[in-house]
C-alpha cells in the first residue's frame, strides 16, 4: 500500500509531511523506555510483512499488520511505522522518500484509530475479543486503502479509477489481516498478556476475572 515517487502533487506531499511529523511527535512523547523493545520488534514485523507485495499501479497490495501494531502500540505506531517505511524506501525502493510522510499517515492513522476503537475489547472473553481483533485488522486495511484513494484523488481526479482499484485489490488482504489479528492477540493473551494494550477498563476487567478464577480454585 505504498504510494511510489512521482504520483502525488506537492501540496499533498507537504500535508503528509506535516501530519506525519505531528503524529510521530506525539508517539515519541508516549514512548516509554520499557516499551522501546516491543516497538522495535513490531516495527521489524511491519517491515518484513510488507516485503512481499503485488504492484497495483502507483501502489501495491501486501500484508500490512498496521491494525495489530496499532492495537499494541497506540500512538507509538507512528514512529514505529515511519522507521520501517524509511528503511523500505532506502533499502528496497518501496514507496519513496518524498512520499514517506503520506505513506506514514496512510498506515499509522488507521492503526491509532483502531487502537481507540478496539483496544478496550481485547481483554474481553471469547467471541467479543475475537470480533474486536478481526474488526481491527479488517478496518485498519480498509481505512488505509481509503486514505490511498484520497491522496490520489487530491492529486488528480483522473486517479479515481486507480483509487477504486486499490481499495478492491485489498479486500482479500482485509480478511487475512483480520484473521492474523485474531491469532496474534489470542496467542499473546496466553503467553505474554502484558504486551496487550493497557486499556484501563480492560485492565480492571482482567483483574476481576483473575480474582474470580483464584476464588474458584480456592473453593
TrEMBL record:
Topology term for the membrane: Multi-pass membrane protein
Chief site of localization: membrane
Keywords: Cell membrane, Membrane, Transmembrane, Transmembrane helix, Transport
Subcellular location: Cell membrane
Family annotation (Pfam families): CbiM (PF01891)
Domain of life of the native organism: Bacteria
Gene Ontology cellular-component annotations: plasma membrane
Residues spanning the membrane: 36-57, 69-91, 97-119, 131-156, 162-188
Keyword Cell membrane: yes
Gene Ontology process terms (BP): transition metal ion transport
Keyword Transmembrane helix belongs to the record: yes
Stored NCBIfam families: PRK06265.1-4, PRK06265.1-5, PRK06265.2-5
The protein's name in its UniProt record: ABC-type Co2+ transport system, permease component
Naturally occurring in which organism (per UniProt): Desulfobacter postgatei 2ac9
Amino acid at each position: 500500500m505504498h504510494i511510489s515517487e512521482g504520483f502525488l502533487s506537492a501540496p499533498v506531499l507537504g500535508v503528509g509531511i506535516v501530519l506525519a511529523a505531528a503524529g510521530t511527535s506525539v508517539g515519541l512523547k508516549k514512548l516509554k523506555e520499557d516499551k522501546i523493545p516491543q516497538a522495535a520488534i513490531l516495527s521489524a514485523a511491519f517491515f518484513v510483512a510488507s516485503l512481499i507485495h503485488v504492484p497495483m499501479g502507483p501502489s501495491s497490495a501486501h500484508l500490512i499488520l498496521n491494525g495489530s501494531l496499532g492495537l499494541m502500540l497506540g500512538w507509538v505506531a507512528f514512529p514505529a511505522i515511519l522507521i520501517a517505511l524509511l528503511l523500505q524506501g532506502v533499502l528496497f525502493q518501496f514507496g519513496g522518500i518524498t512520499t514517506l510522510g503520506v505513506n506514514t499517515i496512510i498506515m499509522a492513522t488507521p492503526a491509532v484509530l483502531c487502537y481507540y476503537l478496539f483496544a478496550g475489547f481485547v481483554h474481553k472473553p471469547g467471541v467479543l475479543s475475537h470480533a474486536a481483533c478481526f474488526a481491527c485488522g479488517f478496518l485498519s486495511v480498509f481505512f488505509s486503502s481509503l486514505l490511498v484513494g484520497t491522496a490520489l484523488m487530491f492529486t488528480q481526479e483522473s486517479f479515481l479509477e486507480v483509487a477504486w482499484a486499490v481499495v478492491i485489490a485489498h479486500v482479500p488482504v482485509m480478511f487475512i489481516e483480520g484473521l492474523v489479528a485474531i491469532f496474534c492477540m489470542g496467542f499473546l493473551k496466553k503467553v505474554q498478556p502484558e504486551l496487550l494494550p493497557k486499556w484501563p477498563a480492560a485492565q480492571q476487567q482482567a483483574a476481576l476475572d483473575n480474582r474470580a478464577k483464584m476464588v474458584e480454585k480456592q473453593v
